User: Which sequence fits this backbone?
Protein backbone atom coordinates (compact mmCIF):
# COMPACT_ATOMS: atom_id res chain seq x y z
CA UNK A 1 0.00 0.00 0.00
CA UNK A 2 1.44 3.33 -1.04
CA UNK A 3 2.09 5.81 1.70
CA UNK A 4 0.16 9.08 1.45
CA UNK A 5 2.50 11.98 0.81
CA UNK A 6 2.81 14.41 3.75
CA UNK A 7 2.19 17.45 1.54
CA UNK A 8 -1.11 15.93 0.37
CA UNK A 9 -2.27 15.44 3.97
CA UNK A 10 -1.25 19.01 4.75
CA UNK A 11 -3.20 20.26 1.73
CA UNK A 12 -6.32 18.37 2.80
CA UNK A 13 -5.94 19.76 6.31
CA UNK A 14 -5.62 23.32 5.05
CA UNK A 15 -8.64 22.93 2.79
CA UNK A 16 -10.75 21.52 5.62
CA UNK A 17 -9.63 24.34 7.91
CA UNK A 18 -10.48 26.93 5.26
CA UNK A 19 -13.96 25.47 4.75
CA UNK A 20 -14.59 25.64 8.50
CA UNK A 21 -13.23 29.16 8.78
CA UNK A 22 -14.86 30.54 5.62
CA UNK A 23 -18.25 31.48 7.22
CA UNK A 24 -16.41 33.49 9.87
CA UNK A 25 -14.31 35.19 7.19
CA UNK A 26 -17.42 36.02 5.15
CA UNK A 27 -19.16 37.40 8.26
CA UNK A 28 -16.10 39.57 8.96
CA UNK A 29 -16.08 40.96 5.41
CA UNK A 30 -19.84 41.57 5.40
CA UNK A 31 -19.60 43.56 8.62
CA UNK A 32 -17.58 46.19 6.74
CA UNK A 33 -19.88 46.39 3.71
CA UNK A 34 -22.76 48.69 2.90
CA UNK A 35 -26.20 47.10 3.10
CA UNK A 36 -26.69 47.19 -0.69
CA UNK A 37 -23.35 45.38 -1.17
CA UNK A 38 -24.11 42.84 1.55
CA UNK A 39 -27.56 42.10 0.14
CA UNK A 40 -26.35 41.81 -3.45
CA UNK A 41 -27.07 38.50 -5.17
CA UNK A 42 -23.59 38.60 -6.67
CA UNK A 43 -20.82 38.00 -4.09
CA UNK A 44 -18.68 41.11 -3.85
CA UNK A 45 -15.10 40.53 -2.76
CA UNK A 46 -13.68 43.92 -3.71
CA UNK A 47 -15.51 46.76 -1.98
CA UNK A 48 -14.87 49.99 -0.14
CA UNK A 49 -14.86 49.20 3.60
CA UNK A 50 -17.13 51.23 5.85
CA UNK A 51 -17.61 51.38 9.62
CA UNK A 52 -21.27 52.33 9.37
CA UNK A 53 -22.62 48.90 10.33
CA UNK A 54 -20.01 48.49 13.07
CA UNK A 55 -20.95 51.82 14.65
CA UNK A 56 -24.68 51.13 14.43
CA UNK A 57 -24.33 47.63 15.89
CA UNK A 58 -22.37 49.11 18.79
CA UNK A 59 -24.73 51.99 19.50
CA UNK A 60 -28.12 50.50 18.65
CA UNK A 61 -28.41 48.40 21.80
CA UNK A 62 -26.72 48.04 25.18
CA UNK A 63 -23.98 45.74 23.97
CA UNK A 64 -22.21 45.58 27.33
CA UNK A 65 -25.40 44.42 29.05
CA UNK A 66 -25.70 41.56 26.58
CA UNK A 67 -22.03 40.67 27.09
CA UNK A 68 -22.55 40.69 30.84
CA UNK A 69 -25.54 38.38 30.54
CA UNK A 70 -23.63 36.01 28.25
CA UNK A 71 -20.71 35.93 30.68
CA UNK A 72 -22.96 35.20 33.65
CA UNK A 73 -24.90 32.51 31.80
CA UNK A 74 -21.89 30.76 30.27
CA UNK A 75 -19.45 31.00 33.19
CA UNK A 76 -22.11 30.41 35.84
CA UNK A 77 -23.60 27.39 34.08
CA UNK A 78 -20.12 25.96 33.51
CA UNK A 79 -19.18 26.34 37.17
CA UNK A 80 -22.42 24.68 38.28
CA UNK A 81 -22.01 21.87 35.72
CA UNK A 82 -18.45 21.21 36.93
CA UNK A 83 -19.56 21.07 40.57
CA UNK A 84 -22.17 18.45 39.67
CA UNK A 85 -20.15 16.57 37.03
CA UNK A 86 -16.92 15.97 38.98
CA UNK A 87 -18.44 13.79 41.76
CA UNK A 88 -20.72 12.08 39.23
CA UNK A 89 -17.80 11.23 36.93
CA UNK A 90 -15.75 10.08 39.93
CA UNK A 91 -18.49 7.71 41.09
CA UNK A 92 -19.06 6.22 37.64
CA UNK A 93 -15.36 5.92 36.79
CA UNK A 94 -14.06 4.40 40.03
CA UNK A 95 -17.18 2.88 41.58
CA UNK A 96 -19.21 1.70 38.57
CA UNK A 97 -22.46 -0.13 39.07
CA UNK A 98 -24.35 -2.57 36.85
CA UNK A 99 -26.26 0.29 35.21
CA UNK A 100 -23.46 2.84 34.86
CA UNK A 101 -23.18 2.36 31.10
CA UNK A 102 -26.94 2.66 30.69
CA UNK A 103 -26.94 5.85 32.76
CA UNK A 104 -24.16 7.38 30.66
CA UNK A 105 -25.96 6.53 27.44
CA UNK A 106 -29.19 7.97 28.78
CA UNK A 107 -27.44 11.19 29.79
CA UNK A 108 -25.88 11.75 26.40
CA UNK A 109 -29.11 10.78 24.63
CA UNK A 110 -30.79 13.84 26.15
CA UNK A 111 -28.54 15.99 23.92
CA UNK A 112 -30.17 14.39 20.88
CA UNK A 113 -33.67 15.58 21.73
CA UNK A 114 -34.73 18.69 19.79
CA UNK A 115 -35.17 21.62 22.19
CA UNK A 116 -38.56 22.40 20.68
CA UNK A 117 -39.81 19.12 22.14
CA UNK A 118 -39.48 20.51 25.66
CA UNK A 119 -40.13 24.20 25.02
CA UNK A 120 -43.79 24.19 26.12
CA UNK A 121 -43.09 22.39 29.41
CA UNK A 122 -40.03 24.50 30.26
CA UNK A 123 -41.78 27.76 29.35
CA UNK A 124 -44.83 26.96 31.50
CA UNK A 125 -42.63 25.96 34.45
CA UNK A 126 -40.55 29.12 34.18
CA UNK A 127 -43.64 31.29 33.83
CA UNK A 128 -45.30 29.75 36.89
CA UNK A 129 -42.11 30.26 38.93
CA UNK A 130 -41.64 33.84 37.70
CA UNK A 131 -38.30 32.95 36.12
CA UNK A 132 -38.86 34.44 32.67
CA UNK A 133 -36.30 37.06 31.63
CA UNK A 134 -34.08 36.08 34.57
CA UNK A 135 -30.38 35.52 33.91
CA UNK A 136 -29.95 33.15 36.85
CA UNK A 137 -32.77 30.86 35.75
CA UNK A 138 -31.26 30.84 32.26
CA UNK A 139 -27.91 29.91 33.83
CA UNK A 140 -29.55 26.99 35.63
CA UNK A 141 -31.08 25.74 32.39
CA UNK A 142 -27.77 26.02 30.51
CA UNK A 143 -26.05 23.99 33.26
CA UNK A 144 -28.65 21.23 32.92
CA UNK A 145 -28.36 21.22 29.12
CA UNK A 146 -24.55 20.98 29.07
CA UNK A 147 -24.16 18.67 32.07
CA UNK A 148 -24.09 15.44 29.97
CA UNK A 149 -21.21 16.74 27.83
CA UNK A 150 -19.23 17.81 30.90
CA UNK A 151 -19.83 14.48 32.67
CA UNK A 152 -18.75 12.47 29.64
CA UNK A 153 -15.59 14.52 29.08
CA UNK A 154 -14.45 14.23 32.69
CA UNK A 155 -15.54 10.59 32.96
CA UNK A 156 -13.46 9.62 29.91
CA UNK A 157 -10.41 11.27 31.47
CA UNK A 158 -10.96 9.69 34.90
CA UNK A 159 -11.16 6.26 33.27
CA UNK A 160 -7.59 6.68 32.02
CA UNK A 161 -6.23 7.36 35.51
CA UNK A 162 -4.95 4.17 37.20
CA UNK A 163 -7.12 3.17 40.14
CA UNK A 164 -3.97 2.15 42.01
CA UNK A 165 -3.26 5.84 42.65
CA UNK A 166 -6.47 6.18 44.64
CA UNK A 167 -5.91 2.86 46.40
CA UNK A 168 -2.51 4.08 47.57
CA UNK A 169 -4.12 7.28 48.83
CA UNK A 170 -6.73 5.28 50.76
CA UNK A 171 -3.96 3.29 52.41
CA UNK A 172 -2.52 6.59 53.59
CA UNK A 173 -5.90 7.48 55.11
CA UNK A 174 -7.34 9.72 52.38
CA UNK A 175 -11.10 10.05 52.22
CA UNK A 176 -13.32 10.73 49.22
CA UNK A 177 -12.82 14.51 49.49
CA UNK A 178 -9.04 14.14 49.57
CA UNK A 179 -9.11 11.71 46.64
CA UNK A 180 -11.04 14.16 44.49
CA UNK A 181 -9.55 17.48 45.60
CA UNK A 182 -5.92 16.55 46.19
CA UNK A 183 -5.30 13.70 43.76
CA UNK A 184 -7.77 13.61 40.87
CA UNK A 185 -8.34 17.30 40.18
CA UNK A 186 -4.63 18.29 39.90
CA UNK A 187 -4.07 15.38 37.50
CA UNK A 188 -7.23 16.10 35.50
CA UNK A 189 -6.59 19.79 34.82
CA UNK A 190 -6.49 19.31 31.00
CA UNK A 191 -9.80 17.45 31.08
CA UNK A 192 -11.42 20.04 33.32
CA UNK A 193 -10.16 22.85 31.09
CA UNK A 194 -11.50 21.21 27.92
CA UNK A 195 -14.84 20.37 29.56
CA UNK A 196 -15.16 23.92 30.87
CA UNK A 197 -14.29 25.46 27.49
CA UNK A 198 -16.77 23.24 25.67
CA UNK A 199 -19.49 24.14 28.15
CA UNK A 200 -18.73 27.86 27.86
CA UNK A 201 -18.85 27.73 24.05
CA UNK A 202 -22.11 25.76 24.02
CA UNK A 203 -23.73 28.15 26.50
CA UNK A 204 -22.35 31.23 24.73
CA UNK A 205 -23.77 30.09 21.38
CA UNK A 206 -27.13 28.89 22.70
CA UNK A 207 -29.87 30.82 20.92
CA UNK A 208 -33.10 28.83 21.12
CA UNK A 209 -33.64 29.06 24.88
CA UNK A 210 -32.35 32.61 25.20
CA UNK A 211 -34.79 33.79 22.52
CA UNK A 212 -37.62 31.87 24.18
CA UNK A 213 -37.07 32.70 27.84
CA UNK A 214 -35.58 36.21 27.80
CA UNK A 215 -36.65 39.56 26.40
CA UNK A 216 -34.74 42.56 27.73
CA UNK A 217 -32.97 42.43 31.09
CA UNK A 218 -31.56 38.89 30.80
CA UNK A 219 -31.01 38.81 27.03
CA UNK A 220 -27.56 37.44 26.07
CA UNK A 221 -25.69 38.10 22.85
CA UNK A 222 -27.80 35.66 20.83
CA UNK A 223 -30.82 37.91 21.40
CA UNK A 224 -28.69 40.95 20.57
CA UNK A 225 -27.78 39.46 17.18
CA UNK A 226 -31.36 38.36 16.46
CA UNK A 227 -32.63 41.89 17.17
CA UNK A 228 -31.20 42.99 13.81
CA UNK A 229 -33.87 40.95 12.03
CA UNK A 230 -36.79 43.34 11.79
CA UNK A 231 -40.18 43.41 10.14
CA UNK A 232 -38.68 45.40 7.28
CA UNK A 233 -36.27 42.58 6.46
CA UNK A 234 -32.78 41.33 7.21
CA UNK A 235 -29.96 43.81 7.56
CA UNK A 236 -27.05 41.56 6.63
CA UNK A 237 -24.24 44.02 7.21
CA UNK A 238 -25.50 45.15 10.60
CA UNK A 239 -26.28 41.57 11.66
CA UNK A 240 -22.80 40.51 10.60
CA UNK A 241 -21.31 43.36 12.65
CA UNK A 242 -23.36 42.29 15.67
CA UNK A 243 -22.32 38.66 15.11
CA UNK A 244 -18.70 39.77 14.97
CA UNK A 245 -19.06 41.43 18.37
CA UNK A 246 -20.75 38.27 19.67
CA UNK A 247 -18.16 35.72 18.54
CA UNK A 248 -14.96 37.67 19.19
CA UNK A 249 -14.82 37.04 22.98
CA UNK A 250 -15.31 33.28 22.69
CA UNK A 251 -12.91 33.07 19.72
CA UNK A 252 -10.20 34.77 21.76
CA UNK A 253 -10.97 32.46 24.68
CA UNK A 254 -10.73 29.39 22.46
CA UNK A 255 -7.49 30.60 20.89
CA UNK A 256 -5.88 31.14 24.27
CA UNK A 257 -7.04 27.78 25.67
CA UNK A 258 -6.59 25.68 22.53
CA UNK A 259 -3.68 23.70 23.96
CA UNK A 260 -5.68 22.65 27.03
CA UNK A 261 -8.69 21.83 24.85
CA UNK A 262 -6.72 19.58 22.49
CA UNK A 263 -4.89 17.94 25.38
CA UNK A 264 -8.11 17.17 27.22
CA UNK A 265 -9.98 15.86 24.17
CA UNK A 266 -7.13 13.65 22.88
CA UNK A 267 -5.95 12.24 26.22
CA UNK A 268 -5.78 8.47 25.92
CA UNK A 269 -6.40 8.47 22.18
CA UNK A 270 -2.81 7.44 21.45
CA UNK A 271 -1.03 4.90 23.61
Assistant:
Amino acid sequence: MRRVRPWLLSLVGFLASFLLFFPILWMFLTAFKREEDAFSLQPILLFTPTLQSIVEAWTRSDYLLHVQNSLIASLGSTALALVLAIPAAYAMAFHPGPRTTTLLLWMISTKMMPPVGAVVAVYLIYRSLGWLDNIWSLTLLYAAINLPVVVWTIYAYFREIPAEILEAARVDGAGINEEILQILLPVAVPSLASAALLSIILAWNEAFWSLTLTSAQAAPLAVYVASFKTAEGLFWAKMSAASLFAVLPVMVMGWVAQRQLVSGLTFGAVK
